[in-house]
Amino acid sequence: MLLLLLQSANAFQEPAFVAARRGGVGRRGVMGVAGQTMRRRIGALRASSSLSSSPKRVIFLGTPDVAALSLSLLLTASKEGRGGNFSIISVVTQPPAPSGRKLKLTPSPVQTLAESAGLPVLTPDKAKDPAFLSTLQALQPDLCITAAYGNFLPSSFLALPRFGTLNIHPSLLPKYRGASPVQRTLQAGDAMTGVSVLFTELKMDAGPILRQVGHPLEGEEKAPELLRELFAEGTEALIQALPSVWDGTATPQEQVEEQATKANKITAAEAGICFEKESARTIHNKVRGFAGWPGTWAWFELVEEEEGGKKSDEIVRLKIVTTRVVEQEGEGRKEAGGRGVELVGGKTGCLRVVCGDESVLDLLEVQPPGKKVMDSKSYANGLRGRTLRWRPMPKKEVEEGVEGA
Question: What does the pLDDT average to over 226-231?
Fold first, then answer.
């Protein structure tokens, strides 16, 4: 009987790519893993009679609205029978966080969606929490899927799902590993981006790639909208790849480490714009990449002519929301060292800025302090004859922004 059990255990094979990741090259060494693997195989034998018909047990991990979009698409695919017969059995997300002026504890978008769908939700402070790991182990997941979860996953977590953990990362890895891939892509002015579906390892965003989808850029996209598009495309690619994960035919590709680049987390210190030091194209790409949070802003002077030739200045900090690069460089240069901001374009006009290198940028939408976003012509109409000029950014703020990039 024991011989038969061992023969049966040997006959139960993990997918080749999963077994390979459990070897010495993957996230864990051979020692200590063989026993875990054997226990999984023997345990799986107990349900072998229904293994082929039972839905694969999937746990989803995510937090912000783009992750909620991925969860919604996965739930729809599961209901429609796409992805090779799987079911979302539980959801993991960050704990409720203070939000709004009153700092009220607010559940994440993923938690809100999961609860509305009747799914059990786990909100550990950290994924290494023993109680959380014990609960996760009891759920016996076949696969975990992560999308912008925001918590480090330790080896004790990664060892639990039988088929591993898949992550949706919005860049063409190994380029832009890290917390802000879309923002850094737009800031760099890249003409192509994309999304990767990869197996998670201990090293951030360094696991083998299961699927990649390219996404051409036109030069006007903003981060929030592009994030949603990439997570939608990545989730669809993951769904299409799931059958190959279940049957063991998936052939994930190792990343070329020498081609890896980092996408450091965006900071508020980087949000300032320096018309004196930065070109129109650089500012335009920064506005696109930093849209949403933290946004971008610049210092301006409101100059009013008074009786007797005197001038009074008011310093304001405007949030720059939408811009456009003017290809005819040098147009619109005014007096006062070229720092004048001109209203151009008639009824559908905008504010035009000449940067320090004489490149030209149109400000299409701005947000004054304490007010809503408005088109720049409406803002100009409210100046009541005052002249608008940009101010050089203080050296300290320029240096802080450069260090954060």
Answer: 98
Report how far residue 227's alpha carbon sits from residue 183's, in angstroms, rounded to the nearest whole number.
9
User: Angle at Cα 329 formed by Cα 323 and Cα 335, nearest 5°?
Assistant: 90
Residues 27, 203: Cα–Cα separation, whole Å: 8
Tokens of 249: 């035919």
Which secondary-structure segment (H or E) carries 19? Answer: helix 16-21
Helix (H) or strand (E) holding 349, with range, is none
CA–CA gap between residue 128 and residue 124 (Å, rounded)? 9
Q: Residue 271: in which H helix or E strand, if any?
A: none
- The answer to whether 186 touches 323, Cβ cutoff 8 Å, is no
Range 279-284 average pLDDT? 97
**Model confidence pLDDT, tens digit, residues 147-156:** 999 999 999 9
From residue 317, give the alpha-carbon distance in Å to each of 308, 352, 392.
28, 17, 12
| DSSP conformation letters of 78-125 | HHHT-SSSEEEEEEE-PPPEEETTTTEEE--HHHHHHHHTT--EE--S
Phi, psi of 37 (to 5 degrees): -65, -45
Terminal CA-CA length for the chain: 64
Pair of tokens at residue 92: 């993991």
- pLDDT, tens digit (0-9, with 9 covering 90-100), for 170-209: 999 999 999 999 999 999 999 999 999 999 999 999 999 9
Q: Which residue(s) pair with 272 in the sheet? A: 297
Give the H or E element holding residue 369: none
pLDDT for position 176? 98
Is 151 buried (19+), middle (13-18) or exposed (0-12) by CB count in 10 A?
middle
Read off the pLDDT band of 1 (50, 70, 90).
very low
Using the CB atoms, write b or e for 61-94: b if 16+ within 10 Å.
Answer: bbbbbbbbbbbebbbebbeeebbbebebbbbbbb
**What pLDDT does 246 receive?**
97
H/E element, 136: helix 130-139
